[in-house]
Write a structure and sequence with these properties.
single chain, about 350 residues, mainly beta, Tachylectin-2, Chain A, Glycoside hydrolase
């Protein structure tokens, strides 16, 4: 493949995809973690592919590098980047971690697990730019946006009907055993948090996670994972949250618990961020997840996610809403090059 030849989704390393459909230029911007093998730029950070039709993509441009941020608290990770426009500027959220900055090991979780997992600083940072193409500069190099004593990841932006911005994030199962989704208020300019975190739901609230485990087989010690929140307000006012987790099953050989990555969603019964949240069945299985919704320039609701978890590629689905119910219409294999049963 030459430098000028368009790229296609099957050729594009792509984990935790996030699309910004820019109406001004009618260009889709697809953000993911930097991969030097395709960007040609070394270092931890964020890169962006661009397309006018979701089929032909430019080679990626790097828009953020941790090495360029003076005094930053962590230089590893740069997971789950996403970009949001607010008040004429663009805000990048991406998750960093630093294994050299340990966190206190918490007491046993709600399952009474006998083991302790090592914890270290991990959380979403906020960076800002005047352009979708960066460069993005971190707002606070001293620590993550959510409270630093919490091991968190995958922060996303939600603005409630009153105009109050929130960061919604996953609280790591490594610290909680039963992973949670939480939210914390942000200042109007998104540069700092206000108040304390609010618990939204636990991974184990999705009862279908363990329905493939036979009765009598203990599963309490297996982690319950929360990943990749993204909020979506439907035309009739319902509030949805896409998120990912692992659906658990028992391996036939030795009875150990394993699980496949799935894309699922939840619906707020009140229509407010604070819920209560009702868990729905998975949308896509087959080691797929960390999806988000966006509209094409023609108005079609689309979901993009990655599959498989290792060596991931982007997969596109046309979606349909029926009130608060979200459904897959079809996978766009003409764009993503693969058909895998759901």
């Amino acid at each position: 493949m030459t430098e000028t030849e368009p790229m296609r989704l099957p050729d594009m390393p792509l984990h935790d995809p996030f699309v910004v459909a820019d109406d001004l230029t009618r260009t889709y911007h697809l953000y993911t973690s930097n991969d030097p093998s395709v960007s040609g730029v070394d270092g931890t950070g964020t890169m962006v592919y661009r397309s006018h039709d979701l089929r032909d993509w430019t080679r990626p441009a790097v828009v953020f590098r941790t090495e360029d941020q003076q005094g930053i608290w962590a230089t590893d990770g740069a997971w789950a980047p996403e970009v949001h426009q607010r008040d004429g500027r663009y805000y990048l959220f991406t998750t960093l971690h630093n294994t050299d900055r340990p966190l206190p090991v918490p007491p046993p979780g709600r399952w009474g697990t006998p083991f302790r997992l090592p914890n270290h600083m991990r959380g979403t940072i906020t960076a800002v730019s005047d352009s979708l193409l960066g460069p993005f500069t971190v707002v606070d190099p001293s620590g993550p946006t959510p409270p630093g004593h919490l091991m968190t990841l995958d922060g996303t932006l939600y603005v409630d009907p009153s105009g109050q911005p929130w960061m919604v994030y996953a609280h790591e199962w490594l610290q909680t055993i039963d992973g949670t989704m939480e939210a914390i208020r942000l200042a109007p300019d998104l540069t700092r948090t206000v108040g304390d975190p609010v618990l939204l739901f636990k991974a184990s609230d999705a009862s279908w996670i363990t329905e493939q485990i036979p009765a009598g087989v203990p599963h309490q010690l297996a982690p319950y994972v929360t990943d990749g929140p993204q909020l979506h307000r439907t035309p009739d006012g319902a509030l949805l949250m896409l998120w990912s987790t692992y659906e658990k099953n028992v391996a036939a050989e030795d009875g150990t618990i394993s699980g496949g990555y799935v894309q699922t969603y939840a619906v707020s019964e009140s229509g407010d961020l604070t819920g209560p949240w009702r868990q729905r069945r998975p949308l896509v299985r087959q080691d797929s997840g960390h999806g988000m919704l966006f509209h094409t320039f023609e108005g079609q609701l689309m979901m993009i996610l990655h599959r498989p978890f290792e060596n991931a590629r982007g997969k596109l689905y046309e979606m349909e809403l029926d009130g608060p119910d979200l459904r897959v219409l079809r996978q766009r294999t003409d764009l993503d090059g693969e058909l895998v049963p759901r």
